[in-house]
Amino acid sequence: MTNDEKLTPEQFSICRLKATEPPFTGKYVDCKQDGIYHCVCCDAPLFDSKTKYDSGSGWPSFWQALENQISENVDTSHGMRRVEIICQHCEAHLGHVFTDGIEPTGLRYCVNSASLILRERS
Protein backbone atom coordinates (compact mmCIF):
# COMPACT_ATOMS: atom_id res chain seq x y z
CA MET A 1 0.00 0.00 0.00
CA THR A 2 1.43 3.35 -0.99
CA ASN A 3 0.56 6.91 -0.06
CA ASP A 4 1.11 8.34 -3.56
CA GLU A 5 -1.97 10.56 -3.34
CA LYS A 6 -0.43 12.25 -0.27
CA LEU A 7 2.92 12.99 -1.93
CA THR A 8 3.97 16.53 -2.74
CA PRO A 9 4.74 17.24 -6.41
CA GLU A 10 8.47 17.08 -5.57
CA GLN A 11 8.12 13.74 -3.77
CA PHE A 12 6.08 12.28 -6.64
CA SER A 13 8.59 13.50 -9.22
CA ILE A 14 11.50 11.91 -7.31
CA CYS A 15 9.89 8.69 -6.10
CA ARG A 16 7.78 7.82 -9.13
CA LEU A 17 9.43 9.67 -12.04
CA LYS A 18 13.06 9.18 -10.87
CA ALA A 19 13.96 12.86 -10.61
CA THR A 20 16.70 14.13 -8.31
CA GLU A 21 16.49 17.00 -5.86
CA PRO A 22 19.20 19.66 -6.18
CA PRO A 23 22.22 19.02 -3.94
CA PHE A 24 22.30 20.61 -0.47
CA THR A 25 18.55 21.42 -0.59
CA GLY A 26 16.97 18.36 1.07
CA LYS A 27 15.72 18.53 4.64
CA TYR A 28 17.84 15.58 5.80
CA VAL A 29 21.23 16.58 4.34
CA ASP A 30 22.53 17.97 7.65
CA CYS A 31 20.13 16.16 9.97
CA LYS A 32 21.77 14.57 13.03
CA GLN A 33 18.56 13.36 14.70
CA ASP A 34 18.42 9.74 15.87
CA GLY A 35 15.83 7.46 14.34
CA ILE A 36 14.89 5.29 11.38
CA TYR A 37 14.44 6.69 7.88
CA HIS A 38 11.32 5.30 6.20
CA CYS A 39 10.04 5.34 2.62
CA VAL A 40 7.79 8.38 2.14
CA CYS A 41 5.53 6.33 -0.17
CA CYS A 42 4.87 3.15 1.83
CA ASP A 43 6.47 3.80 5.25
CA ALA A 44 8.84 0.81 5.02
CA PRO A 45 11.94 1.25 7.20
CA LEU A 46 15.01 1.78 5.00
CA PHE A 47 17.99 3.25 6.86
CA ASP A 48 19.13 3.60 10.47
CA SER A 49 20.41 7.08 11.36
CA LYS A 50 23.42 5.36 12.99
CA THR A 51 24.69 4.54 9.47
CA LYS A 52 24.28 8.12 8.16
CA TYR A 53 27.40 10.19 7.48
CA ASP A 54 28.40 13.45 5.82
CA SER A 55 29.73 12.48 2.41
CA GLY A 56 29.92 16.08 1.19
CA SER A 57 27.80 15.08 -1.82
CA GLY A 58 24.81 17.27 -0.96
CA TRP A 59 22.44 14.37 -0.30
CA PRO A 60 21.87 12.26 2.81
CA SER A 61 24.36 9.40 2.68
CA PHE A 62 24.37 6.08 4.50
CA TRP A 63 26.99 3.32 4.57
CA GLN A 64 24.37 0.60 4.98
CA ALA A 65 20.66 0.02 4.32
CA LEU A 66 18.44 -2.04 6.58
CA GLU A 67 18.46 -5.69 5.54
CA ASN A 68 16.01 -6.75 2.80
CA GLN A 69 14.59 -3.24 2.34
CA ILE A 70 16.39 -1.95 -0.77
CA SER A 71 16.53 -3.32 -4.32
CA GLU A 72 19.06 -2.30 -6.95
CA ASN A 73 18.73 -1.67 -10.69
CA VAL A 74 21.32 -0.71 -13.30
CA ASP A 75 20.71 2.90 -14.38
CA THR A 76 22.25 4.03 -17.67
CA SER A 77 20.45 7.39 -17.86
CA HIS A 78 22.36 10.64 -18.40
CA GLY A 79 25.18 8.82 -20.20
CA MET A 80 26.39 7.16 -17.01
CA ARG A 81 26.29 3.67 -15.54
CA ARG A 82 25.04 3.84 -11.97
CA VAL A 83 23.19 1.58 -9.55
CA GLU A 84 19.74 2.89 -8.68
CA ILE A 85 18.29 2.05 -5.28
CA ILE A 86 14.56 1.56 -4.84
CA CYS A 87 12.27 0.63 -1.98
CA GLN A 88 11.85 -3.13 -2.14
CA HIS A 89 8.23 -2.82 -1.02
CA CYS A 90 6.78 -0.17 -3.36
CA GLU A 91 9.58 0.44 -5.88
CA ALA A 92 9.94 4.13 -5.01
CA HIS A 93 13.11 5.64 -6.46
CA LEU A 94 15.40 6.62 -3.56
CA GLY A 95 18.69 7.52 -5.20
CA HIS A 96 21.85 5.59 -6.07
CA VAL A 97 24.53 3.51 -4.34
CA PHE A 98 28.22 4.05 -5.02
CA THR A 99 31.37 2.20 -4.00
CA ASP A 100 33.22 5.30 -2.76
CA GLY A 101 31.77 5.25 0.76
CA ILE A 102 33.29 4.87 4.18
CA GLU A 103 34.08 1.75 6.19
CA PRO A 104 32.85 -0.69 7.28
CA THR A 105 31.06 -1.29 3.96
CA GLY A 106 32.77 1.12 1.56
CA LEU A 107 29.32 1.98 0.20
CA ARG A 108 27.57 5.33 -0.15
CA TYR A 109 23.81 5.12 -0.39
CA CYS A 110 23.11 8.59 -1.80
CA VAL A 111 19.44 9.28 -1.11
CA ASN A 112 17.00 12.07 -1.96
CA SER A 113 15.61 13.63 1.21
CA ALA A 114 12.21 13.89 -0.46
CA SER A 115 11.98 10.08 -0.64
CA LEU A 116 12.41 9.73 3.13
CA ILE A 117 10.64 10.41 6.39
CA LEU A 118 12.54 10.21 9.67
CA ARG A 119 10.73 8.51 12.54
CA GLU A 120 11.75 8.12 16.17
CA ARG A 121 12.85 4.70 17.28
CA SER A 122 10.07 2.67 18.83
Write up what this structure looks like.
This protein has one domain (4-119): Beta Complex (Metal Binding Protein, Guanine Nucleotide Exchange Factor, Chain A), CATH 2.170.150.20. The protein is built from 1 helix and 9 strands, in the order αβββββββββ. The protein has one helix at 9-17, and strands spanning 36-39, 45-48, 52-53, 61-62, 70-75, 82-87, 93-102, 107-111, 116-119. It has a 6-stranded antiparallel sheet. Strand 6 (82-87) and strand 7 form a beta hairpin. The longest helix has 9 residues, at 9-17. The chain is globular and about 40 Å long.
> Class by helix and strand content?
mainly beta
Top CATH class:
Mainly Beta
Helix fraction bin: under 10%
Low-confidence stretches are: none
Mean pLDDT: 95
Q: If strands are numbered along the chain, what order do they take across the biggest sheet?
A: 3-4-8-7-6-5
The whole-angstrom Rg is 13 Å
Number of helices: 1
Taken in chain order, the helices and strands follow as HEEEEEEEEE
What's the CATH superfamily, by name?
Answer: Peptide methionine sulfoxide reductase
Q: State the distance separating the first and last CA atoms.
A: 22 Å
- Described by the principal axes of the CA atoms, the overall outline is globular
How would a textbook summarize the main sheet? 6 strands, antiparallel
Strand segment tally = 9
The CATH architecture name reads Beta Complex
Task: State the main characteristics.
122 residues, mainly beta, Metal Binding Protein, Guanine Nucleotide Exchange Factor, Chain A, 6-stranded antiparallel β-sheet, 3-stranded antiparallel β-sheet, globular
